[in-house]
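Hi C.,

You asked whether I'd gotten around to modeling the 437-residue construct. I have! Everything is below, sequence then structure, no commentary in between.
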Amino acid sequence: MQIWIPSIIFGVVWIITTIVFVVLYKKKQPTLQDDKSIKTVVDNQREQNQLLNNMLMQAVKNSEIATQNTINNLSVLQKQEFEAISKRVNDLTFRNEDRIEKLTMQVNQTLTTMREENEKSLEKMRETVDEKLNNSLTERLNESFSKIQQSLESVNLGLGEMRSLATGVGDLKKVLSNVKIRGGWGEVMLSTLLEQILAPNQYKSQVQVKQNSKERVDFVVCMPGKDGNEVYLPIDSKFPLEDYNRLVEASDTLNKELIEKCQKQLFKRIREEAKSIKEKYISVPETTDFAIMFLPIEGLYAEVVRNVELFDELNNQYKVVVCGPTTLTALLNSLQLGFKTLYIQKRSSEIWNFLSTLKQEFSKYLALLEKSQGKLGEATTNLEQATKSSQKIAKKLDNVGDLIGLDDEIQIDNKNPANPKDGDPDNSSAGNSDCDK
């Protein structure tokens, strides 16, 4: 900054002198005297410029010297400050090292204490966990042993029940091995289905359907016929258990030839039973033109229905419909619905007559209602007139009451005159006489 100031001053002075010289030169004419004066001016200007240059050079030297001095001073100061900073840094490093050592020692101590405390707490936790595990294991083992003991007792009970069931199955097998008892069981099952679905007057048991015949069908369903006569639907129970058991045993062996042989025997037995049903129990017009063969086991019924040729043969040739418990239930439900429809048709005429009489009675009831409504209207008008007249009478009675109140006031005034004459006994007696009158 000190170097630039003299140079700037020198430049400004030089520019001013140049401008002045140019202006003077333009104003004066070019004469010899002027030339001399110009030369003197120029010489003076040169001298001044030389002085200015010298002054400028001196100022520059002085500024350089001052600048060098200041730079030397600054370098000394910087060196001193750097030394001071380095000392401070060294002091800080030593202090930080001490602090770090102290901090590491404290951290190590805290870590050791924490490790010891954690080990103690972990040891306590292990002990508590071991105790709880032992307790829980003993409790669970006791519970599991008690449950196992209970289950073993229930298994023993189940085994006893299975033994009794096995004996019962053996007894049932013995019962079913007898043909008569097996047939009776099928009849009981058929009777139960009929009792659950039909009314007592809609079926019969052990009926002789053919005249001059000793054969009696198990059950018949009473169907409505012409002229009010009943037509019987024969239902006979059949239970070829031996042939069916042979077929089941053959199916377990997976012997195809034996299975076919047992099937043929079963189908042959079914054909024979259907033929006997047709010959014994179908007698038109006393019965329907078909009968029902009831098989009390669904497996036996499914085995028969599986053979489509046999099923068609029984329907077409022997006029026998094979039914299991489920299909017989559906058939009886449909028959019950038909019975209800016929009953409704029979009672429809009675219902129509009852509705016609009810219609007549209702018309009479409407006429009576109209008459009573007219009488009620007259009564309401009479009541309105009576209320109006009663209101008038009440008003008149109120007027009469007002009049009675005035007479009482007059009587009170006569008994107690406001201005009697002074000591006149005649006037007082006259007043009393008027009141008496």
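If it helps when you're writing up: Residues 32-177 form the longest helix (146 residues).

Thanks,
B.
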